[in-house]
Amino acid sequence: MEFTGERYIPSLNGAIKYEHLHRYAISLEFVTGKSVLDIASGEGYGSALLAKVAKSVIGVDIDIASIEYAEAQYRDRQNLKFFTGSCDSIPLPDNSVDVVTSFETIEHHDKHKEMMQEIKRVLKPNGILIVSSPNRLTYSDEANYSNPFHIKELYYNDFLELLDCYFKYYHIYGQRLGTSSFIYTLENSVRDTQKSYTGDIHNLERKVCTLKSPLYFIAVCSNEDRAKEQIVDSLYIDKSDDIFKSFEYSWHQQEKALSYTQSQLEYSQSQLQQTQAEFERSQSQLQQTQAELERSQSQLQQTQAELERSQSQLQQTQAELERSQSQLQQTQAEFERSQFQPQVELENLRSRVTAMETSKFWQMRKIWFKIKNYLSLAND
């Protein structure tokens, strides 16, 4: 089956595998030789495990595709059947089974009372219910996590009140992954010799300690005082899949990734410092360029002012030159007329020409040609 996140499938490893298989493992002693109903059987692997020791097992699931897959996958088990049905409408007669198992089911719907009523209906009077539920406080609130497939999760008191309404006796256990030091025989053994110890440097004692903040609740319920007959406190170990090694490998990978990230960060910081230094140098050069530009603008303004003054002087000189040219034309006309007069008048005219050449007109004419030459050079 394809894993969608809603149902566990056997191909998954890690924490989810430990959690699901451990629940079925503690159920084996309760179902030996019994008729069993496994509610929300999903892919069918759990029902098949129970069928190895149970008299008969019926797996019920609301998903038709899961039921069809389970029927095909486990069709060789003669004491195992699968039916389509819901938690509030179980397709079994009254008082028909000795044990009901329902793991990670109750949080997927909000018909909790209807589910418990149906369980009570199909259970024999002295039957046993083994049911699990995520601890909402630890699973969702403290982890700030929301499972999209969960409809109504329960706090411890909610779970307690629900069971109390339908069963006289029940015992609630906590389930979560933990880390421990194992001392074990190097040969496989069927003997139940596992011991548990806890304590610190001040005191050590043999007992099964309670871990804080369980991730899941597991309850063993009955109308007879049989809930404590079986010892449920236990460990699940998979010799082929040590989850601690998986975590350890993941930690090493994260450490490598962190080390690489730190080196990249240091390199980036070095590059940033170089970039900052270059930026500061660029800013200094920009300030220098801006100062030079301001000086150039000031010089340009001065040159423009001088040019305007030179243009004004040129206009004045041009006006005087025009007047001088007019006088020159008049003098030339008089000189031409004087050619027909006596020699005395000619001499007088020559003296007047001489006087004119030494006059202000000629001086202004010299100035005009100097300015004209200056402007021609400036334009070039």
TrEMBL record:
Entry keyword set: Coiled coil
Span of domain Methyltransferase type: 37-131
Regions annotated as coiled coil: 272-341
InterPro entries attached to this UniProt entry: Methyltransf_11, SAM-dependent_MTases_sf
A molecular-function term among this protein's GO annotations: S-adenosylmethionine-dependent methyltransferase activity
Domain of life: Bacteria
SUPFAM superfamilies referenced in this protein's UniProt entry, alphabetically: S-adenosyl-L-methionine-dependent methyltransferases, Tropomyosin
Protein name: Methyltransferase type 11 domain-containing protein
Organism placement in taxonomy: Bacteria, Bacillati, Cyanobacteriota, Cyanophyceae, Nostocales
